[in-house]
Amino acid sequence: MATTAIWDVTDRLDRVIDYATNPDKTENLDFSSPDFQGLRDVLKYTAREGKTEKQFYVTGINCDWVTACKQMSQTKLQFQKTDGILAFHGYQSFVPGEATPETAHAIGVKLAQELWGDRFEVVVSTHLDKGHLHNHFVLNSVSFMDGKRYYDNKTTYSLMRQTSDRLCREYSLSVIENPQKGKSKHFAEWKAEQEGKPTWRGLIREDVDKAIAASMTFTQFISALRKQGYEVKTGVKYMAVRPQGKERFVRLKTLGDDYTEEALKERILKNRSPKPPQVLPEPKRKRYTVRGGMNLKKTKKLTGLQALYFHYLYKMGILPKQRVSNKRTHFLLREDIRYMKQLISQTKLLCTHRIETKEQLLTYQNELEQEMTALIDERKSLYNRLRRCKDDEQILASKEQISELSKKLSLLRKEVKLCTGILSRSEEMKQKLLQIKQEEIHQGKEEKTYEQRSRSSRSNRQYES
């Protein structure tokens, strides 16, 4: 059984690239420039060593995969189509244990040749680093034959799935007979979910599902979304929402087939039954323990970076264990749950070493780097001694020492990485907390104004009666 998907790879959206058509300029183009960064990144990822057994299962179709980025870029320049979608990133995943690497790669190459081999440059790679074998396809968005663009739509994806199923049957692999609809996701979102990390589009889906479960009419659904802090855009071609703290609106139809306006109305209609609408419970929050030799009850009041991190964890709903308020966690902080391991590790470091200021953090990081330099020099001398040594016992002893030094260096590098992360993350945390505070103040003023108007209205009605 193989599942398939395909996504577009876009260039930086904040600018439109305009290249000169002069052949002299195109021949001298610097392909290391950031103009084709998105294309280079996806090619680098799909052919990464360790994922493909030293790149043994990588094949270029109508191109050499080693220079695929340059060749694809030259095709775009030749037909003056360097803007818009750079490439398409396809995916084909097999059931664990059902296919061998050779079989999976052969199916992937045949699939690419049948679908795109007559007009497009494609790189096919088979990844072996997960429990399931899977193929990646990087398809140039512009044809080298006629310069026409490839258009990804329901028809072309259906052909991709049908071709994949037929090839799987030819190789005696199982096939999904009745694939579910409305389950497509963007690759970055799919990858994050595979790694157990929440995505902001996934959080929107959760909130929309919760609003539907609590609504009997479409008007109630919109009201429920607004109560959750969303700005809702209706009366337009495509209904869109904007979460708290986000600059851009998201069209609900892009979340999947179950989230188009028609599908939402159908789902709300199903709630009209004798049973009262059920509100989905809040997802259980994971509890984390921060150890580091500090007793929060006995220690002095936290300040600086320690206070910042503990306050941030509190606002996220992680600390303390017993929350006094059941107020919904802000969208910006719910989104940061994906970085929970780093946040906890950084908090532990600050507590363990009593670090409160950036100056103390930089001093500690400098000490770590000095210790690393000394260990690297010591390990280097051991390597030199090992090359000259002929005694088996001395060789074994040197290797053990090198192994111990490498373990120490690994731990130190992790500590340095945590320090660097704290320096970069702390400013972002301050900005988010400030934005949330301003929104809470604004919301409080609106609620106060609404309450005053309600009181005034009730007083007028009593006076008239």
Automatic annotation (TrEMBL):
Signal peptide: none annotated. Pfam families: Relaxase. Keywords: Coiled coil. InterPro entries: Endonuclease_MobA/VirD2. The keyword Nucleotidyltransferase does not apply. Residues 443-454 have a biased composition (Basic and acidic residues). It comes from the Bacteria. Residues 45-173 form the MobA/VirD2-like nuclease domain. Residues 358-415 form a coiled coil. Residues 443-465 are annotated as: Disordered. This is Relaxase/Mobilisation nuclease domain-containing protein. It comes from Geosporobacter subterraneus DSM 17957. The lineage of its organism: Bacteria, Bacillati, Bacillota, Clostridia, Peptostreptococcales.
